[in-house]
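[job 4417] fold queue: 2 targets
>>> target A
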Amino acid sequence: MIWLYGHNNIFAKMSNRKKMQTESESLELIVILALVAVFILFQLRRTLGRKSGYDPSDDQKDDSYQHKSGQRDEEDEDNIIQLRPDDEKAVPGANLGLSKSSPFYGAIEKINRYDHSFNVRSFFDGAEYAYGLVLNAFWNMDRKTLRSMLSRQVFDQFDGVIKSLEKQNLHSENKLMDIEKIDLVDVNLTGSLAEVTVEFTSHMIMSTRDEDDKIIDGNADRSIRISDIWTFCRDVKSVDPNWTLVATRTG
């Protein structure tokens, strides 16, 4: 019995040790997994937090932004031109994105009173995306996308060009290479109807081919510098975040 009791004691101590060891290993595993989770989350935040286009960390205080990256990759999402950040806690008048000496500061400030999240930097970011989306829809003769983003008058102008190409059995072969910069040209607020006009300076490869795929206009191997002036309009009292392209002209 003493022998059995002694061994039982040994077995009990060994069991306790194993139990403590198991608990210790489990605790270490939990700590390791937690550290791994924190590391993964940190990497995701770093990756998902990056944007193409202008770098807001430059904190430029003027009416234009220089763009170093190429055209933003198109995402499979609705054709909505949201030229404002998703920030429900935006503070009125904070970070408008341009100097108080700018001739457009007063109008931007008035728009911000209606829509506290509105600022120039976020607008430029959305405008850059809209520019590429509209151009690609136009070049691909995608009337559905164009109709959802343009005013009736602008759509009719774009559609007229598309019909002319179709009638002559021509097709465009164009590519937006990059957006060099975006400049603020004009800002107006009439009642709650805001109109913001910007100038895009970009580089494109543009050519037109006939039904035999022969180039009849442009150059498929060389990019050219293009200046487009576009006006976007939105009722800033509306909960609808969509901006509509209401006017276009060359710079």
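>>> target B
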Amino acid sequence: MSRRFALLSVTALGLLAGCAQKPRTVAAVAPPVIMVPVPAPVMPKGASPTIVIPVALADGTYPTPNRNLTTAAKVWHLRAALNVAALACRGPQEVVIVAGYNALLSAQKPVLAKAEATYASEYKSGGGDWQDRYDDSMTRLYNFFSQSPARDDFCTAANTVLAQSAGVSAEALPAFAAQNLPVLERPFTDFYRAVDAWRGRAVPRPVQPVMASRQYASNTPVQTITQARLQPVSQPVPPAQPRLKLDASVFQ
């Protein structure tokens, strides 16, 4: 009996040992997948889903009325841009911009008059209805600088350029215009670039040439020339907003 009990005990211990050697399998539970929403691109200030902007060129720039200009054209386009700023900019900078623009007209009248005459003669040399072509180009130019989505940055740039123009001599104005016309244009091309990025068409910035800091000679007295097209902007500016409309042909 004792021997039989002993055999049963050994058998039972063997079974228990066998059971103890088998680890319990626990099913691994995969962590839940967390869906992180991708934020939608922010529409640039002043843009709309249907806004039309020019198509970027292969070099990363945008077509504007300020491309491929002669020296006289750069001076006259600078004056036109600052004229728009004096008419359209509002807020704390308004008085300073108007005063700066009027000071520029007063100090640089002969240079500006010569630039306008030279620029017009360049159109006239093309023959045909040159006056109509010239007037159309001026309309496109004013409409370009009047685009409201970029106005805040444009007015800031105009304020800076006008402040710097106070110490520019008549001889240095053409070089000053060539250097600062792109400064006045950049707020608009930056806006185009932002719209393209918002639409998923990132346009790389063109490589800008390194320009050395330019010191301009102090202004010297210049002869006053009366010219109807160079009338100062009266101060205060009337409260009514100027009717500056966008001409789609500026993008052509």
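[job 4417] complete. Note on B: Residues 71-203 form one domain.
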